[in-house]
Amino acid sequence: MLIWIAGAAVLVVAGAAIAAGPIMSRVEQPKYDIVSRDGDFEIRAYAPMIIAQAEVQGARRPAIEEGFRIIAGYIFGANQGRMKIAMTAPVQQQAAALPAAEDKTGSDRWSVSFVMPSSWSLETLPPPADGRIKLTQVPAQRMLALTFSGAYSDGILAEKTRELRDYAQRNGLAVSGAPLLAFYNPPWTLPMLRRNEVMLACSC
Fold this sequence. Notes:
globular, alpha+beta
């Protein structure tokens, strides 16, 4: 009997994990038009957006966790207006300093950012109470993106970045800058249901 109860509990938890990822990721996302699509590769034209970003130091995974906590505090009310701001997706991460011609995930300085909901402007967003947070207007831009599911270890992210650069080279696309990493789901989402992306600024 106890075994059956334990088994049922495991099924309930597993079912909740399957449902929670997609449900909790149904939040506002950056607006873009798809210029072209080739399998998992897309060229996107992004509309202007505002991001809240924090620069943190350390290895990639601890850095995104710290950056997430800093910016989550801002949107949950730790700001000068004590105002709540809706969560969005994805959480973005980008190396703040990248050695020339390298795509390493071993940088020790990272920019972690949330895109602010489109209903806010720089004039209406409350000033951050934490001096580590900056609100920045990002102009319209085109990005070359590669979407994938599953885990996103440093090794996998480096491999996906190489695939993205190889695709750009094969197709004569001019890309620049450090890869922008985007994670759409909470960490307890089952790997097969996750949406992850690697993007590069593209003059295309």
